[in-house]
Amino acid sequence: MEKIIKFVENSSGFDNSNKLRLLLLLAGVKPSAYVQLRITNNLHDKHDFEELLKEKGIIFEASKAKGFEEIVKVDSAAHWKLKGTWYGYDLFSTKPYAERFLEYVQLLKSKKHELADMMAGIIYGYPKCCIEKFVKQHQKINKSYYQHFKELNDMDKAFPFICHTPCSLKCKATKKLNNLYKNTVKKVSPKFFKEYSKKSTHRVPVVVDIENDIPGMWKKKDGHDYIYVTKAPINGKYLIISWLTKAVFKRGDVLDADVTVQYDFASLKIRKSIGHIKNFHHERHFTKL
Ligand SMILES: [Zn+2]
Fold it and tell me: Rounded to two decimals, what is the model's pTM?
């Protein structure tokens, strides 16, 4: 097996969505990717990763080091703690893609957002129909709140291997791409494929946090896409989950729930309300949520 594939599989510096994008790029099915490498006790990973990228002929640009925080405790608040540093990597399979990226940055700088979005779609290999829909999305949404978020959630579930927002649940190009990516990952890294596809359910209390919304878009809401924080870690980490419901909760409500984790997202089955945390908030020292 290629050294760099093995490195990606075993590095603790990449989470699953970053591993997925990297493997797709390395397998040659995705032209460019942006990934984040987190450094905690894996101090050698930055150097090793860059050496392996050079060996493989991947063009890359690394950002400066930035700090990252993680939730370490949830009681009357979610407490965050600085855990390490991270680097952002822009990765390109070939020189023309790297050059297009420079054009993209230029377009952003000159505030030509539509052209920039079109260019980004080409750089990262998104289907044309989905790029066009994405560019138009800044206009009014002709769906109710519930319909809008339901569609987004359904698309996440239907296409767990793609890296873009599909134009619709029926998008043929997205379906094709999802299958290609799925089969590619299965082939180049059966180990990651198994890990990524594994489904597990955990009974754990969750705290209702804020609600996803587009300000000014809906006069009346027919549902609520709340964000929940798990009150205990799942596989070593406190999770932040978005979940759509017709029920109404208050920020700080504590719910007994079954959290099912698969691919890069989690779904909830709420059993019952078991309490309330007054003035629930996040305590972060480093960055604001
Ligand atoms: Zn599409």
Answer: 0.93
